[in-house]
Structure formats: structure tokens, C-alpha cells
Amino acid sequence: MTVAHNFPSGSNVRGLTRRGLLARAMAAGATFVVGSGFVAARDAAWAVETTTLKPATMATLIQMARDIYPHDRIADRYYAIAVKGYDTAEKAQMVEEGITGLNLVAKAQGFDDYLSAGWEKDRVTMLRMIEHTPFFQTVRAGLVTGLYNQKEIWPVFGYEGESFSHGGYIERGFNDIDWL
């Protein structure tokens, strides 16, 4: 994964519009496009604005979330929604320092930063090196609700939602265990 922030020499980045940035990043093959105050997907129609965190930090946080709870059938935008809550003044210092630490681990492993590690296996190795830190534990715990409480992804897991308003599970598939 690469972050589009280094343009070829001679390119004029002053006055570059978001549309122009996205077009150049797509041509360069970036997965996440990091601009001034936003992170966008190259291959999908979503973007997340950042107000406190650096856009590169948010892009790293999104990839970190995907690596902690990997689901191939869930789009990055749901991971972006799950970590958007860390873009606050109260959490910014912890997150910025945590991502800086993660990037230092990546450098020690021979990568430019966490995002530049192209293989999930390499990124998971890095996450295991920081899993004892309060930063990692906070992000991991927050993802449990931040990611899995999104109703739009429940069908991917076969979860139909709460059952109380429908009279419980007894008449709604509780007894359809045919695989036992």
C-alpha cells in the first residue's frame, strides 16, 4: 500500500485541487489518497475528513483496523467509520504518538512506514510487537463496537439484528440448527 504524497519532480502541487490530487493518486496506484485534511479510497467512492489527526495518521489507522479485524468482504469505508471517533482533540495525542511508534517499528523491520509494508503478514508482525501498548489495546477494544455495531455490515456475518422487538429468537431461526 502506498500513500499518495510524493509527486514526481517538477509537478506543481501548489493550488492542486482535491480532484486533481485524486486523479494523480489514482494514476500512481495509491490505495489511500492522503490530502490536506482528508483520506480517500482510490478504488471506491468514499472519503473521510480529518479535523485533528493528520490524514496520513488516519490512513494508517484505517489499515491498522483492517489488519486487527480482517474481513475481505467488508469495504475500507466501514473501517474508516469505525476509527473516525479517534479524530478528536482528546485522543489525537495518543493516536499520533501510537502511529509514530508503529512507524518506528516498521522502520526497524526495513519498511518506510507501516503503510509501505505490502504484505498483511508483515503488518501483523508489527502489530504483535506493539500489542501490549495502551494505544493498541485502546484501538482494538474500540473496534469491537466501532466496526461490528454498523448495521450495514451485519448481513455479511449473517446477523439479523436484535430479536426482542420481533418476539425473540425462538420463532426466528433459533431451532434451525441443521448442521449438528
Concise summary:
The chain is of the alpha+beta class. It is built from eight helices and four strands, in the order βαβββααααααα.
Description:
This protein has 180 residues and is an alpha+beta fold. It has a domain at 55-174. The protein has eight helices and four strands, in the order βαβββααααααα. A four-stranded mixed β-sheet has the order 1-2-3-4, with helices on both faces. β1 (3-4), α1 and β2 form a beta-alpha-beta unit. α2 packs across α3. The radius of gyration is 19 Å and the shape is elongated. The relative contact order is 0.11. Mean pLDDT is 81; it is low at 1-14 and 25-30.
SSE order and pairing:
Layout: E1 3-4, H1 18-28, E2 32-35, E3 38-41, E4 47-49, H2 55-68, H3 76-83, H4 89-108, H5 120-130, H6 134-148, H7 154-157, H8 170-174
Parallel strand pairs: 1-2
Antiparallel strand pairs: 2-3, 3-4
Helix pairs in contact: 2-3, 3-6, 4-5
